[in-house]
Amino acid sequence: MTYLAALCSPLAWISIGGKLADISLSEAFSSKDSWTYSFIKVLAIPAINIVALYILNITSILPISFVGLATVVIMMATPTATVAAAYAIKFDKESLLTSNCSLLSTVFSVICMPLWIVILEVIKSLEIFG
Description:
- α1 packs across α6 (about 95-125) and α5 packs antiparallel against α6.
- By secondary structure, this protein is an all-alpha fold.
- It has helices at about 1-20, 25-30, 30-60, 65-75, 80-90, 95-125.
């Protein structure tokens, strides 16, 4: 079972690559929906989480440490899970769009992750979270 569990992500990546091989890279990057999704996934969702966790922290509803905040923000700024693309491919429902979103959010995440680390360091220096 452990061996099979380790194969899940690589097999999904192969499926995504197979779908992306059907189109040119410029087509994948020209999809407005993929760009919108990637922007929301990698930039907007982590920012919303920072604001929500800040409100919960100052109201003492959910006190959270800086390590907890950083974990949530980094986790939310990661690319799309490959399992979503695997399901889309399996059920033949928008598999090309899902593969494009996975590709673009991965590239976008690699570019934006250092930005989130800098933002988290600024938040840490402000000592907002205990």
